[in-house]
Amino acid sequence: MQDIVEQIQQTLSKAFLDLYDTEIAADTLKLERTRKEYPGDFTFVVFPFLRTSKKKPEETAGDLGRFLVEAGAIRTYNVVKGFLNLEVDTRLWIEFLNQTGMNLDAFGKRSQNGEKVMVEYSSPNTNKPLHLGHIRNNLLGFAVSNILRFTGHEVVRTNLVNDRGIHICKSMLAWMRLGNGSTPTSEGMKGDHFVGHYYVLFDKEYRAELNRLKENGMDEKEAEAHSEWMEGARELLRKWEANDAAVRALWKQMNDWVYAGFDSTYRRLGVDFDRFYYESDTYLLGRDLVMEGLEKGVFFRKDDGSVWADLTEFGLDEKLLLRSDGTSVYITQDLGTAQLKYDDYGMDRSVYVVGNEQDYHFKVLQLLLEKLEKPYAGGIYHLSYGMVDLPHGKMKSREGTVVDADDLMNEMHATARARTEEQGKTEGLSEQELDQLYETIGLGALKYFLLRVDAGKRMLFNPEESIDLQGNTATFIQYTYARCRSILRSVEFVRSEIGSTDPDPLENALILHIYAFPHKVMEAAESLNPSVLCNYTYELAKLYNAFYNQLHILREEDPAKRALRLNLTHIVSELVRKNLNLLGISVPERM
RNA sequence: GGCCUCGUAGCUCAAUUGAAUAGAGCAUCUGACUACGGAUCAGAAGGUUCCAGGUUUGAAUCCUGGCGAGGUCACCA
User: Is the CB of A476 within 7 Å of strand B?
Assistant: First the structure.
């Protein structure tokens, strides 16, 4: 069966040739969904083609509409100003549903296209637990990876763990001085929270020390320079770099505690990775690339020995690549890591899921790789997402406004529990099943809340109000799924062909929305934007609910209508499940 | 200050490859359960799309200027 829209486009193209003697490629003739206040399935806007037709909008639309009907591409049409509204023969829709239902798993899915994409996300520091911002990052990276796989890309999901540096040394020092040999086990704490606790203690001690020094007459800078706590941390970093056995052992111990904590958070969030990179392995990389750039003459050395790139031709500044003492800076190791990843996987594209505060950094990274004429430079893509703001601005650890990831998941679980108990519809579920259900609903709501907003935009989270379970939420969509399943279970649904019947307008709207799915999931993949899929799925659930409330399914006596409605129920439920799964959200059979 | 984002209903968000009367949800108000699941549905009310110009048959969308918010411009990562 030929695609319905393509068929119309090709006939339109022929119409332009026959009527106006003009060749226009079929796939450039855009068809939109007809607005609901007018009759029609698709709308062709003729305004851009008045120069070719040399006629008034209404006449042009009439010409084209007549041609389409005579060619048998549509059933009927109507013209409103320059808008040509087309109605498709309902037999085609029934045929579409029968074909879609026959192979639902493959609906919208693309076969392997040979493109390999790396998606790096999460990339945490190992000195403190994950917070709300990390959750947005993780969900985006995971969902984007799923969507890319579904649309035919080979995907490698990576996590570049920042496991070394001055921040980890701060936690280490505080633990050495104040820990008394305690461990996560002895304190009954999750490892990442345990280590984060010492990071906070360091900061407290450091600030207290600065205040003492300032009271003794030093200014801010002097005090910082004389801080014994900070010097202790720097000393640990030097020893770490010199491979001091004791320091390395403590460092490994603290990181392992953190990893155990991260692991359980990742597992609960449901995200996963194919490959971990660690900065302790990669932080020395990149210097070779800088040397290479010097030889090629695309970078330059200043009198003090430091190495720079001149990016003023791109409207940016000069960028430091190696310090005067020859050591690396952040961007240097990112250059090296980019090369390492490419050597390891040879991917066509490399997507970095990183907050928009690093827009400048990634612009520079790509320019530098282009200057070095690296073949992978063009494939570097910064998937920049907006910060999650609180009502009074950013999360600030010093002000204690950081929304902890684990706490938030617990709260969502509790909210889901309270709401479910209010509903009182869970007879016969075991304690374990109930717990699973609260997790499905609570985390679903959290994930959908974070994914439904366009990734590039900043968004607001109000900790005072718990995340909604009504309206445009995962709960609403999950409820629609559970309801569909309840119907299908009750008749022990087995798919059968739908016979000839005229869909009701509510059914028609639902069919058209189902039909749009392959296009929508491609849009989500191309724009690397899961919110497209959220909005699509919400709309799908809404259309189904409207249909459900108005029309009988099981009580319908006309066999063709009943088959149509049962098939719609089946297709919607599977599509909902598939989409939520792509977004990392699970669905309950009952709720 | 330079550069980059963003500004849509009281609130949170859609629509940004230019198209018909700018759409949802929350909150507010009014209706619908002798049941295929009311975590739902139907309806009401709510808009100078920050402001001023410009391009266009047509602008929330593109251009210019202003106002407001955020980010960034380290020999930090």
Answer: yes
Domain count, chain A: 2
Contact A158, A119 (CB under 8 A): yes
Q: By C-alpha distance, which of A391, A371, A370 is closest to A379?
A: A370
Q: Is the CB of A110 under 7 A from strand B?
A: no
Confidence of residue A59 (pLDDT cuts 50, 70, 90): very high
Q: pLDDT, tens digit, for every residue of A265-284?
A: 999 999 999 999 999 999 99
pLDDT band at A398 (very low <50, low <70, confident <90, very high): confident
CA of A523 to C1' of B39 (A): 30
Measured CA to CA, the distance from residue A417 to residue A409 in angstroms comes to 12
Q: Which nucleotides of B are covered by protein (CB under 7 A)?
A: 3-6, 11-15, 19-21, 24-27, 36-42, 57-58, 70-77
* CB of A548 within 7 Å of some strand B atom: yes
Chain segment A529-587, per-residue pLDDT in tens = 999 999 999 999 999 999 999 999 999 999 999 999 999 999 999 999 999 999 999 99
When pLDDT is cut at 50, 70 and 90, the band that residue A219 belongs to is confident
- Does the CB of A323 fall within 7 Å of any strand B atom? yes
Find and give the residue nearest to B77, measured CA to C1'. Answer: A330
A173 and A270 in a common domain = yes
**Shared-domain flag, residues A61 and A170:** no
Q: What confidence tens digit (pLDDT) does each residue in A376-391 have?
A: 999 999 999 999 999 8
> Which chain A residues in 207-246 sit with Cβ < 7 A of strand B?
none
For residue A49, being part of any structural domain is answered with: yes
Q: What is the mean pLDDT of residues A77-101?
A: 95
In a domain, A54, yes or no: yes
Q: Is the CB of A393 under 7 A from strand B?
A: yes
For residues A283 and A475, give the distance between their C-alpha atoms in angstroms, rounded to a whole number.
44
Domain span holding position A55: 4-88
Last residue of a domain, one of A36, A55, A88: A88
Where a domain ends, among A88, A112, A139?
Answer: A88
User: Which residue minimizes Cα–C1' distance to B37?
Assistant: A483
CA separation for the pair A500, A486 (Å, rounded):
26
Position A1 pLDDT exceeds 80: no
A 266-295, residues with C-beta < 7 Å of strand B: 279
Say if strands A83-87 and A116-120 run parallel, antiparallel, or are unpaired: unpaired
In a domain, A208, yes or no: yes
Question: Mean pLDDT over residues A66-85, rounded?
Answer: 95
Q: Which of A529, A405, A517 is nearest to A141 (CA)?
A: A529
Closest-lying nucleotide for A422 based on CA to C1': B39
Q: Is residue A68 part of a domain?
A: yes
Amino acid in the structure at residue A173: L
Residues 6+ apart with CB under 8 A from A474: A441, A444, A445, A447, A448, A449, A580, A585
A173 with A278, same domain: the answer is yes
Would the ipTM clear 0.85, i.e. be above it?
A: yes
Q: What is the CATH number of the domain that holds A55?
A: 3.30.1360.70
Q: Of A537, A415, A425, whose CA–CA distance to A476 is shortest?
A: A537
Measure, in angstroms, how far nucleotide B42 C1' is from residue A473 CA. Answer: 20
| Element holding A385 (H helix, E strand) | strand A380-385
